Amino acid sequence: MRLPGPPATPADHSTPGSARPSDAERIRSVLAAAHSMTVVTGEVRTEVRHLDGTDPLGRLHLHPAGPGGGGVGVGEHRPSVRLEFTDIAPTPVRDRVRARVTLVGRLLTPYGDPARAGADSTCLEFGRAVLETARGRAYVGLDALDAARPDPLATCEAGMLTHLLDDHAELVTLLLRLVRPEPTAAVVRALPVALDRYGITLRLEERRGHRDVTLPFPSPLDDVEQAGAQIQALVSAARRRSHRNTLPA
Asked: Considering its fold, how many domains does the chain have in total?
């Protein structure tokens, strides 16, 4: 699959000691973990569910637009299509929508439901990929999308975060010791909101508004099997911090 287009926005390393996925990596992770999507063709919106464990790009073959409109013959119709994905936090935080991903293009073959066993694959002339987050909107080209890989924790992130919150809530409170600047009395609740190869993100909720703080792992993960040791390293670092935390779990 060759994916042309403008380069993706690179990962932001503006905060010392921290990193986060590039926009292309974030898109691939959202797609890999997607449970559903909305397919929009013309005025018709079709909800496709049960995508669990099936990356839509496994059945959607993305093709570059050919020169001069792709060599479309006179009278040949290629309907435009928009594929919409919503990334929702698995924990009960405020503002649970973390990101929206939209793939826009034109159908080269009839659309086949990727959730239906035995469905024919669908070829799509790629137009653009759009990532919308709290940081704004980014456009990702196909070369960057093709080169990117999903985060190794993408498909198990939800289970890991809910397990942490349901069975080890005291560790979330402990991890607050690593937050800088230190949380104030204005914070009424802290919950894990995201987990990727770079670290774990806590959402600090106040009576009005909230802020997200990422606690970076000692080194980025290459495999899901490394997650336990890296999380334990953060917990050990938190225990070594001297200041006391009085926020509710």
From this structure: 2
In a shared domain, residues 178 and 208: yes
Contacting residues for 140 by C-beta, under 8 A, at least 6 apart: 5, 6, 8, 9, 23, 24, 27, 128, 129, 130, 131
- Maximum C-alpha span of the chain: 74
Of 102, 121, 147, the residue that ends a domain is 147
pTM of the model: 0.82
Tokens of 218: 């000692």
Do 129 and 165 lie in one domain? The reply is no
CA distance 79 to 110: 10
Joined tokens for residue 84: 């919409």
The span from the CA of 218 to the CA of 71, in Å, is 51
Residue 2 falls inside a structural domain: no
**Cβ within 8 Å of residue 209, ≥6 positions away:** none
What are the backbone dihedrals phi and psi of residue 102, each rounded to the nearest 5 degrees, phi first? -130, 130
Report yes or no on 225 lying in a domain.
yes
- Tens digits of pLDDT across the chain (249 residues): 333 333 333 333 334 445 889 999 999 999 999 989 999 988 899 998 877 656 777 778 888 976 654 444 444 678 899 999 999 999 999 999 999 999 999 988 766 655 554 456 788 899 999 999 999 999 999 999 999 999 999 999 999 999 999 999 999 999 999 999 999 999 999 999 999 999 999 999 999 899 999 999 999 999 999 999 999 999 999 999 855 555 554
- Identify the helix (H) or strand (E) that includes residue 110: none
CA–chain centroid gap for 35, Å, is: 12
Neighbouring residues of 64: CB distance < 8 A, sequence distance ≥ 6 = 2, 3, 4, 5, 125, 126, 142
